[in-house]
Design a protein that fits this description.
The chain is mainly alpha-helical. The chain has two domains: about 50 residues, no CATH class; about 40 residues, no CATH class. The chain is about 50% helix and about 5% strand. The protein contains three helices and two strands, in the order H-H-E-H-E. Strands 1-2 form a two-stranded parallel ribbon. Helix 1 packs across helix 2 and helix 2 crosses helix 3. The radius of gyration is 15 Å and the shape is flat. The mean pLDDT is about 80.
């Protein structure tokens, strides 16, 4: 099943790549290829749709991807809250 078809709308291709990336994660693999970027794009789109952001950061830990998403949310003016104290 090809992930790219010129007749398939871009949103559908994004969903297919995202599903493939989640399958890779479930198998203990880090997403690679187009699916990895699809996850990042999906998360940023969710931030665009949100009124505010709640960062779930047990023990104050914030990973690299979450840091990028926090920076994006901050740049778009979204209010950001954390479940645990953080330096962000």
């Amino acid at each position: 099943m090809p992930l790219r078809n010129r007749r398939t709308p871009p949103a559908v291709r994004l969903v297919k790549r995202t599903v493939e990336a989640y399958r890779q994660l479930e198998q203990g693999q880090m997403p690679a290829g187009p699916g990895a970027g699809a996850l990042d794009a999906l998360h940023l789109r969710k931030i665009d749709l949100a009124d505010r952001i709640l960062v779930v950061n047990p023990g104050g830990y914030i990973g690299e991807s979450t840091s990028r998403e926090i920076a994006y949310a901050h740049a778009t003016g979204k209010p950001i809250s954390f479940t645990d104290p953080s330096d962000q």
